[in-house]
Design a protein that fits this description.
The protein has 10 helices and 7 strands. With 214 residues, it is α/β, with parallel strands linked by helices. It has a 7-stranded mixed β-sheet, with helices on both faces. Helix 5 links the parallel strand 2 and strand 3. Helix 1 crosses helix 2, helix 1 runs parallel beside helix 5 and helix 2 packs antiparallel against helix 4. The protein is globular, with a radius of gyration of 16 Å. 43% of the residues are buried. The structure holds 5-(4-fluorophenyl)-2,3-dihydroxy-N-(2-hydroxyethyl)benzamide and magnesium ion. The site of 5-(4-fluorophenyl)-2,3-dihydroxy-N-(2-hydroxyethyl)benzamide has 12 residues, from helix 9. The site of magnesium ion has 5 residues, from loops.
């Protein structure tokens, strides 16, 4: 039967990356996406911006919305201090299955909790189910029309504290106009745009970094 693109990406990781070496997993996926098949990972150019934000925040608790195949999950987790954790939500079961195996190959299973399901369902349950207090960093990379409602939901559920950082992918392409409008005009956030390019292309895209002011 026909394989899927995420399954072919996983095969590229198994064939080209060293088990237990997150950087080699990231490199193998970028190589696959440049040389074989485009895929919607954050990629290396925007990935470097993500890396710099993660190292600046040095978060103890991270929430990622939209795992896809786990590329950014691995990138973030490989930079976390000991005992720091990342919870990542993925709606698509096939993508989640591939992500679990890519995360395992990178040897980062202890730092990462992957939850299958919709962000709208799970965000209200994170405190009671996983004993989460607040998140130091939230990486938004899921359905673009969910960035705004889920941000409001995180506020309502008390998952953000003064100083929590939101980092949003794809604010230009595919674009998240309602989210940008809200976050850039809300007195409760201070935002900064990092201009870059859509993964593996020359099309403009960028990341929006926002600090929650409480
Ligand atoms: O939908 C996305 N993510 C949520 C599902 O996992 C997504 C899409 C694209 C993209 C696709 C098609 C195109 F033509 C341009 C951009 C890029 C991304 O970085 C993304 O995160
Ligand atoms: Mg993205």
């Amino acid at each position: 039967t026909q394989s899927t693109r995420p399954q072919r990406m996983l095969a590229a990781v198994h064939n080209n990356a060293t088990r237990g070496d997150p950087r080699s997993v990231v490199k193998a996926i970028d190589q696959f996406c440049r040389q074989k098949e485009w895929a919607m990972n954050i990629g290396d150019e925007k990935g470097c911006i993500l890396d710099s934000v993660v190292s600046e925040v040095n978060p103890a608790m991270v929430l990622e919305l939209g795992t896809y195949c786990g590329y950014s999950t691995v990138r973030i987790a490989s930079q976390l201090p000991p005992h720091a954790k990342i919870i990542t939500l993925e709606f698509n079961p096939q993508n989640a299955a591939v992500a679990r195996q890519i995360i395992a190959w990178a040897g980062l299973g202890e730092k990462i909790k992957l939850i299958e399901g919709s962000s709208g369902d799970w965000i209200p349950k994170l405190k009671e189910q996983f004993g989460v207090d607040t998140f130091d960093l939230v990486f938004l990379d899921h359905w673009k029309d969910r960035y705004l409602p889920d941000t409001k939901l995180m506020e309502e559920c008390g998952l953000l504290r003064k100083g929590s950082i939101l980092l949003a992918d794809n604010v230009i392409c595919p674009g998240t106009p309602e989210y940008l409008e809200y976050i850039r005009n809300s007195p409760r956030y201070k935002s900064q745009y990092f201009k870059s390019h859509l993964e593996y292309t020359r099309v403009e895209d960028g990341l929006e970094k926002s600090i929650f002011l409480g």
